[in-house]
Amino acid sequence: MSILLGVDTGGTYTDAVLMRDEEAVIARAKALTTRHDLAIGVGEAVRAVLASSGVMPAEVGLASLSTTLATNALVEGQGGRAALIYVGFDKAAADTPGLAEALGDDPICALSGGHRHDGTEAAALDEAGLLSFLAAHQGTIGGFAVAAQFATRNPAHELRVAELVREMTGAPVSASHQLSPKLGGPKRAVTALLNARLIGMIDTLIGRAQHVLGELGVGAPLMVVRGDGALMSAAQARARPIETILSGPAASIVGARWLTGADDALVSDIGGTTTDIAMLSAGRPAIDPMGAQVGPHRTMVEAVAMRTTGLGGDSDVHFVAEGLTGGVTLGPRRVVPVSLLAQQAPDIVVPILEAQSRSTVPGEHDGRFVRAVTGARCDGLGPREAALLERIGTGIRPLSDVLRARVEIGGLRRLVSRGIVQVSALTPSDAAHVLGWLQTWDTDAAALACALFGRRRTGAGDMLAADAGTMARIIVDQLTHQTCVALLEAGLSEDDLPTEYAEHVLMQRGLARPGGTVRVETGLAVPVVGLGASAAAYYPAVGRALRTHMILPDDGAVANAIGAVVGRVTVRKSGTITSPGEGLYRVHLPDGLEDFADQHAALGRLETVLQNAADTDARAAGAQDIQLRVHRDVRTARAEARDVFVEAVVTIEASGRPAIATT
User: Fold this and answer.
1) Considering the domain boundaries, does residue 498 fall inside one?
2) Half-sphere exposure of 651 (CA within 13 A, CB side)
3) CATH code at 633?
4) What is the pLDDT of residue 358?
5) Which has the closest alpha carbon to 145: 108, 118, 112, 180?
6) What residues have CB less than 8 Å from 465, skipping those under 6 apart?
7) Which sign does the torsion angle of CA 538, 544, 545, 550 carry?
8) Does the global pTM surpass 0.85?
9) 55 is a domain residue
């Protein structure tokens, strides 16, 4: 008998499950996610699940972690300060849509160099320019990304840049060719940049998690769920954290299939920060052929075809002043629910809320609080951000006491995006407490926050809500609406229809089914599997609105943790063969170029190298009983009544279950 431990660190809760031989859940437990140090929540959840099961820590044969850390960081614009070294492209290429947004205010160094399509050098690498850039930014950058022109055809310049960066700075370097074998310099640059930004966060999480598990007596190897639902070793995740984006959502899809046996369904997983939606087709999650997209970022990471929306139980509630009736919208940022903050510090939060309630004039920032994050890196702050952080200090402060001018709001946003400061405000979780659906945190504080928010004036001059209960219902109704829109967008995308139809007046009229001359009915034609701790509270209304069967499995609240231990280790390696001349076949290998006069010899050489690399990486990830699959994509063109070789792409997949430790 093998005991498997699965852990998922979500935006609000950290879940842990113990399974026996991938056949049955024998115990489950939850703990609050400790955002300042996720390993604390991991330890509390693991300690609780071991205590409830009676299993001894040494009996655990495998531990596996899925996490929304990378996903949430990209959705919320968080991560360490990174620099992009762009080789073979002029600096104007950084304005490419997608790359410019990902780069933001981080520095870029455009160097001459790069290679051609056939792998030959286009220009010499400007090493002097690189060393000058590194000297100018010494000590201010947490990680570096390098993307060189046609690096997937010849990685020599990326490897040299990485060598020089490590020698001069000691900082981690993300080379684009090691993250994706595909062409497309700007998109590879985005992938490498985001990887560099995430390295510090994921490295800290995994290192601390391993330490905590060791303290508890769990000596089993730690695996991490990749964005495609497969497992990777902890060491691989530390080097390539970008591959863990959509880790939590991917684990939930694997868990949903295990829990329900559903073949064709939309899976919707609501967490504290995001709602993640994917399609199960013939029992398998589809892989996004264009690469994972999280928030505004399209990457080259191979991951499940997932739509991630900044909508969750802890989404920030925003007032919509337009129109006579007014209203609210939710997300995309996560905040700490007021009811949770009040439970943690009742002597501070509740008196402030009560004082704000007694004021005859509603304040713009009523019900909003800020606090600094313990242990956050504060390097590279501007004068305005530094002054704000000093004003916040080490305790919990009402936002109205911290902001002295509207221009400081931008500085606060930057502090939040860097993970240095947390904001607490009204959320759907607070509304659920007011409505009696949740009783986990401080219900009285939630009611005060709802009542304060409801005092805002609409365009007609009326209060948005007469009481806390009415305000809570407005918030939950808006969550239902935004969830329906997200599910409709996913369904329309599956049908190759424009996703903007989800909010078209006819679609929304069909959902509302009002009276009238014309009857319009819309909804979903497939069932929805609802996952997440709050799914049982929010999703029955979503199912009714979309007129579809809503499946809410018993262990749906811990589906991510289940998916973390029932997946397989899978490694994919791809390589390319081009033909720079008649009868010449060039194999593009990680160590350089090799030319052959025979096509079959070239294919054989590439397959051998890729098989060895895939098998080695799979074994390094802890896989056993490895199976290899080979896929050849040989592309030819018809010319003068014969087929002419153009290019070949070979992909090797090595897959196996992770080895189980024995005691």
Assistant:
1) no
2) 10
3) 3.30.110
4) 94
5) 108
6) 450, 453, 454, 471, 474
7) positive
8) no
9) no
